[in-house]
Amino acid sequence: MRGRSDIETVAVIGAGTMGNGIAQVAATAGYDVVMRDIEREFLDNGFEAIDDSLSRLAAKDDLEEDPGTIRDRITGTTALGDLAEADLVVEAAVEEMDVKRDIFADLDGIVDDDVVLATNTSTLSITTIASATDRPEMVVGLHFMNPVPVMRGVEVVVGEKTDPDVTEFAHWFAEDLGKETWESDDKPGFVTNRVLMPWINEGIRAYDEGVASKEDMDRGMKLGTNVPMGPLELADHIGLDICLDASRTLHEELGDRYKPAYLLKRKVDAGDLGKKTGQGFYEYE
Ligand code: NAI
């Protein structure tokens, strides 16, 4: 496996919510980053999000370097072949098993054998993703939280075949980006989503059944249990489509106690996906 001091270039696959955040924190930590998406437009959106976030952090005096210097460490590409020089890959493309397996199978032929291949999946099996490659021992879950530059935690997920050195490397890398880690076995939802998704769905169901207004549902959970966001505002923040996909995976794997709330499905069908579309349970500017 590539030595820690040899890690210079980090490839990030996907320039969406999570991918651009991971690219940003890796560049902030001093790594060169190649960010890959399938369309130039998605890369442009990703760079715009990075510029906004770096400007906000600079305004708060939270950066040790000039935002421009950090930004210049990140290049964008639509060609997977441009990741050949990567010393580490972090995949943060859409949460679809077929897409992720295709990406990992392609990576096998592009990056060197001693390069760790990490996935940011929030619910899919690391073992199943890893089996698309010839090097399942090099595949590990590196589950960043949203928004990546702000959230301190990263969940390291250990697949059936993950080499213990690769697991240790994943903890080290996340810590090198200034994060704190915990470890989960490769079981549906890992630690965080296994516990979070039923909480969100129950909040939606209780609201739908008229237990409380959406504001009181969120206020009650915040004031009553000391969490920073209630279930409905957190669902809007994550994206209702992401919550529905995660709930469906858990439902399929773990049974009826993970059934998605009806109102969650109806909102996603209506295209109201939360903050990112300006309308979820709440309306956003
Ligand atoms: P997103 O929809 O914002 O971004 C996904 C990006 O992947 C899009 O720009 C899309 O064009 C790109 N993409 C699709 N196929 C690709 C391919 N073959 N190669 C390169 N890029 C490709 O999704 P988001 O929210 O960033 O999620 C990404 C991953 O992170 C998913 O696995 C998700 O489960 C996970 N995640 C999401 C969190 C969240 O709160 N949104 C939190 C933690 C993990």
From TrEMBL:
InterPro entries: 3-OHacyl-CoA_DH, 3-OHacyl-CoA_DH_NAD-bd, 3HC_DH_C, 6-PGluconate_DH-like_C_sf, 6PGD_dom2, NAD(P)-bd_dom_sf. The keyword Membrane does not apply. Residues 189-284 form the 3-hydroxyacyl-CoA dehydrogenase C-terminal domain. GO terms for molecular function: 3-hydroxybutyryl-CoA dehydrogenase activity; NAD+ binding. It holds the Pfam family 3HCDH. The keyword rRNA-binding does not apply. It comes from the Archaea. This is 3-hydroxybutyryl-CoA dehydrogenase. The lineage of its organism: Archaea, Methanobacteriati, Methanobacteriota, Stenosarchaea group, Halobacteria.
